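Duplicate of #3305? Posting structure anyway:
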């Protein structure tokens, strides 16, 4: 129940590829970049409700900065700020393995900025298609330990709270339905804290909206099953989800194709066809820069066909 959509999400989702470089430029100052999409619409007992969780700011340093990480001897000599900038650059270029190799050198650091980035890199590495099941599980739990330490070192770090929520949902996949349901409360708490610390992070707001949508659409019979396990299972409404999606759009208009889609789907669930058409049309017209954008576009097109 508690979430198997965990993904490549990043806080400003319009991506522009710079000419002549591998750099990804982003509009604004708080971009997030979705990493991998695991979708499911299975029953409650195998994980029905879903959580999408966001990632932190990126910077684009250019090819020269990228070249610096090719030698570990050079990396070790770099200043903290340079390493963090290079980590963000590698992340923006989706160089998952190189990013992990860079950051794992700092696994014993007490710096939250290194630790939450390492958690993110470990998790992203676990989602690569060539990773075996045993290694995937190991990386998943390592990611959670890194981000847990990051929070211990800096409880005021918005990104650490966001990634704690992501990684907690991930480890829940290995710990059974009861644990996942219990974790869903904690996940929401950390998302809310992330937003409190960084209220301009449209992605965290979107993720919380998705959390609400997932539980709002849970069928009554699955709620009954959840109630057997927990006397008060997580619940929400489409109205609550809508408020978060609209707020995300207010904070950063057109920042992410999935937010436009979810606005359309929420209005559909609320039987407001006119507004659903408006937002689904905006989704269809959104420039498809990533694989996820293309998937979102196709879903919007299918929904528009059904609406006639």
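Output from current build:
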């Amino acid at each position: 129940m508690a979430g198997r959509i965990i993904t490549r999400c990043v806080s400003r989702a319009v991506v522009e590829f710079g000419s002549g470089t591998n750099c990804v430029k982003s509009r604004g100052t708080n971009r997030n970049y979705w990493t991998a999409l695991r979708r499911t619409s299975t029953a409650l007992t195998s994980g029905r409700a879903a959580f999408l969780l966001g990632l932190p700011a990126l910077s684009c340093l250019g090819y020269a900065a990228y070249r610096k990480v090719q030698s570990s001897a050079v990396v070790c000599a770099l200043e903290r700020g340079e390493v963090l900038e290079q980590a963000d650059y590698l992340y923006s270029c989706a160089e998952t393995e190189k990013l992990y190799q860079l950051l794992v050198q700092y696994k014993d650091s007490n710096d939250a900025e290194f630790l939450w980035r390492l958690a993110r890199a470990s998790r992203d590495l676990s989602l690569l298609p060539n990773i075996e099941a045993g290694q995937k599980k190991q990386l998943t739990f390592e990611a959670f330990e890194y981000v847990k330490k990051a929070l211990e070192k800096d409880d005021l770090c918005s990104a650490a709270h966001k990634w704690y929520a992501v990684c907690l949902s991930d480890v829940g996949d290995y710990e059974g339905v009861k644990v996942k349901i219990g974790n869903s409360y904690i996940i929401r708490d950390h998302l809310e804290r992330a937003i409190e610390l960084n209220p301009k992070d449209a992605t965290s707001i979107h993720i919380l909206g998705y959390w609400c949508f997932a539980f709002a659409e849970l069928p009554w019979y699955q709620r009954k099953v959840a109630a057997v396990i927990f006397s008060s299972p997580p619940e929400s409404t489409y109205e609550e989800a809508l408020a978060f999606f609209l707020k995300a759009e207010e904070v950063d208009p057109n920042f992410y194709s999935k937010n436009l889609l979810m606005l359309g789907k929420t209005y559909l669930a609320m039987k407001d066809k006119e507004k659903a058409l408006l937002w689904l049309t905006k989704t269809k017209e959104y420039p498809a820069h990533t694989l996820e954008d293309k998937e979102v576009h196709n879903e919007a097109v299918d929904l528009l066909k059904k609406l006639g």
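Confirmed duplicate; merging threads. The radius of gyration is 19 Å. The beta strands are 8-10, 15-17, 24-26, 32-34.
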